[in-house]
Amino acid sequence: MAALDLFFSLLLLLIFFFIIPTRASCPPSSCPLGPIVSFPFRLQRFQLRRCGYPGFDLSCDNETLQTTLSLSNSSGNKFVVQTIDYDLQTLIVNDPDHCLPKRFLDRSFDNPPNTTPFRIQSFKMYKFLNCSPQATSLPDTASNILCLSDENHTVFAVPSGEYDNWLKSKAPSPSPSPSSSGPLCEVISSVLVPATAAHELGVFGDAIEGVALTWSTPNCSLCEAIGRDCGLNRDASQIVCSDPKAKTKGLPRSAKYGIIIGVGIPGVLCILGLASYVCGRINAYGRRNRSNMDLSTLASQQPAIVVVGLDGPTIESYPKTLLGESRRVAQAQ
């Protein structure tokens, strides 16, 4: 049976080798509450590593069931992926707690080059102010950040240039303090805010729908433009465009040949081995039965007693010769 186990193991290995590398093993996937995920992205634990491009790993949050992305400078805190536009190569991310200004303050989007494949087209400098409830004099463009405020203080975000101009106009002397807007407010930090989010920040306050991230590598725009799927070739060395209809027509020819070879040869060997094993068992069973029958036959047969020679009366009828002590024929007296 050890030979049969070896054949079956080899069979499974060959099938795995020829089937797994095909594009049919990388179908689109998604989290329960997330967008469709396909190349260059991949869902960890649900899609093979070769189904995605390095740096494009996404995850499913076990609690919220949303799709999440981790940036290199986000202090381990992930972003929720809201949408992915594969034609424009853009995705929209948001903070899980719906407080993107907090992520601006911790500089989650200030990623140096070569640490992440994602880029933000442009930024705008903002100053964040921490003001007491008594503060009434603020720039017209100041936006109230409710998710960072409480009953004891209020946080505002103001474009840096407009804040500086406002501060100069309110300063009683030619040398105003650059770090305060009066005794009731102080500058928390000056940070870069993505331009798209900055527009929403000025209009809606902290109710920002998300931040747009773009990527240029891998460039799948050509594949998308001609209606083909983008992905890695067999050895993951370059980007190729594949026909999505080909996936429904069955396996590639190379995979079919591989399966024929992988299944045919081990299958024939398995059949021969199984037939040899069955024949051996049958022969052994037949020899054992014949031995048992021979033993039972010998045990049942009784040995025949054959008596040969003359009977007693016939022997007594013959004349007798008397021998002496010297074993000689005695002479008559």
Automatic annotation (TrEMBL):
Catalysed conversion reaction: S-ubiquitinyl-[E2 ubiquitin-conjugating enzyme]-L-cysteine + [acceptor protein]-L-lysine = [E2 ubiquitin-conjugating enzyme]-L-cysteine + N(6)-ubiquitinyl-[acceptor protein]-L-lysine
Species for this entry: Prunus yedoensis var. nudiflora
Compartment(s) where it occurs, according to its Swiss-Prot or TrEMBL record: Membrane
Principal subcellular localisation of the protein: membrane
Cellular component, GO, one term: membrane
Membrane-spanning intervals of the chain: 257-280
Protein name: RING-type E3 ubiquitin transferase
Alphabetical UniProt keywords: Membrane, Metal-binding, Signal, Transferase, Transmembrane, Transmembrane helix, Ubl conjugation pathway, Zinc, Zinc-finger
Sequence ranges assigned to domain Wall-associated receptor kinase galacturonan-binding in this UniProt record: 26-95
Upper classification of the organism: Eukaryota, Viridiplantae, Streptophyta, Embryophyta, Tracheophyta
Keyword Disulfide bond attached: no
Membrane topology annotation: Single-pass membrane protein
Family stated for the protein in its record: Belongs to the RING-type zinc finger family. ATL subfamily.
Pathway(s) where this gene product acts: Protein modification; protein ubiquitination
Record's signal peptide: 1-24
One GO MF term attached to the UniProt entry: ubiquitin protein ligase activity
Top-level class of the enzyme under EC nomenclature: transferase
UniProt-listed Enzyme Commission number(s): 2.3.2.27
